[in-house]
Request: fold
Amino acid sequence: MQIQDHSAAHIHTTVTASAYIADDWAQSSARTRALLLRALASALDIERETLVRIAAEETSLGSARLHGEIDRTRFQLNGFADYVEAGHAFALTDDPALAEAPPAGRPHLSRVRIPLGPVAMFSASNFPFAFSVLGGDTASALAAGCPVVVKAHPGHPKLSRKVFELARAVIAGQGLSAALLGMVEGAGIEVGTELVNHPDIAAVAFTGSFKGGAALWRLANARARPIAFYGELGSINPVVALPAALATQAQALAQTLAASIEFGCGQVCTSPGLVVLFEGADAQRFEDTLRDELREKPTHRMLTPAMKRTFDAGVARLLGTPGVQTLLAGSADHDETAPPRPVLARTSAKHFIATPALHEEIFGPACLIVRVGSTDEIVDVLGAIGGSLTVTLWGADEDTPDVRRVARRATQIAGRVLFSGVPTGVAVTRSQQHGGPWPASTQPFTTSVGYEALERFLRPVALQSAPAWLSARAGQPC
Ligand code: NAP
Reply:
């Protein structure tokens, strides 16, 4: 499918239309927003067969996975509708006037939040529904009261257009302005650059690579008026298997981990790219099972030929690094349309810590085992990674000083710490935190998954001695 390269004039028209209606949408009631979000969710369901067919052709992700992703995206849209109706978008704190407050009494203060304005939303390639046109960023921005301009991902242009058309029809059916959701397309960096630089864009939500995210984050900060840039980037998601876990479940855990590494052909931001194991017989059993399981896993074509090329280059870099032993070499053909084969390698803590190139995400089914000999080494390996969306810690049930040290370091470098299971699969709920310290995300104190994601698009304002009519709006912007 031909990707349109939208001109600067088209981007300007789209963004200014969005800015024009931003105040109206900011003032909208919880009911109006919830009705829209629920109608968008229903439209995805009604058109699901067509959407899945187009998505399967463009992404190779397979219909079971894509149906599941539609379900998750609908759940998310409906969830934000419930969240807004429960009053969370208009939540405020209110301190009445107090004559006795030192030194001379205090006035009535209400702390409310107002929507930022038009949000530029960069779709990701690997979740063509959940992190694309009607994904979590769009749902949370609309729920917060912000119009959205989508930068469609060139990996699924036909699907992006179909979902966009469908959304536009829903918006019209609700009697709302079409400009509530705009979309721009382009296969090069020019379109995204133009969008982020547009003076009417008030914030950016980005899901994608570290390279792309970091470039756009710099751009957002270099504007005459810098804006918030919420970038969800890549991650290596270490899994630490402590001896207590391996002693009893080495094989079962290795099987579970192999399925997680292979999920979506490894093209998932939470894919486990690193396993930390204590030297010993249990570690060897775990490693052998993991290698055998991965060897048998079926894979499918990667999302784009460019991703396959990047994967092949990452694997060559990994396996060619001094001090790294190859356990599974993947495929040698370097055919960019052929499915990749899983890759497994091993190194020592010393080599890992001393080699920054080993800390980088390899987007695809590749995993590096790091053998350690002490708790100090686990802590240092995690410290060398610096920032990750997740850390998984198996075998941490006993409260010991060593377990506490590892758990403490895990919480210092990750947005989400799991004590069982695998990191792939991110529940949409209020307690979710999807975003870890740099380089996992640009704003680690916010989340892009879960209902708190809405907070990213609201700015606090203190209303001092507000008139009765304004206080009566109870947090709903005027
Ligand atoms: P990508 O290559 O960074 O592309 C994402 C979007 O950004 C595309 O629309 C791309 O447009 C644009 N872009 C990239 N670099 C740009 C630049 N320098 N200037 C302007 N626009 C730019 O990401 P992807 O294709 O989705 O690759 C997958 C990556 O996303 C992986 O690293 C994965 O871990 C990460 N990811 C993270 C999360 C998360 O929640 N943290 C979720 C899913 C995926 P063009 O292609 O047109 O340039």
Notes: The chain has a mean pLDDT of 97. Residues 8-233+441-471 form a domain with the Aldehyde Dehydrogenase; Chain A, domain 1 fold (CATH 3.40.605.10). Residues 63-85 form the longest helix (23 residues). The chain is about 45% helix and 15% strand.
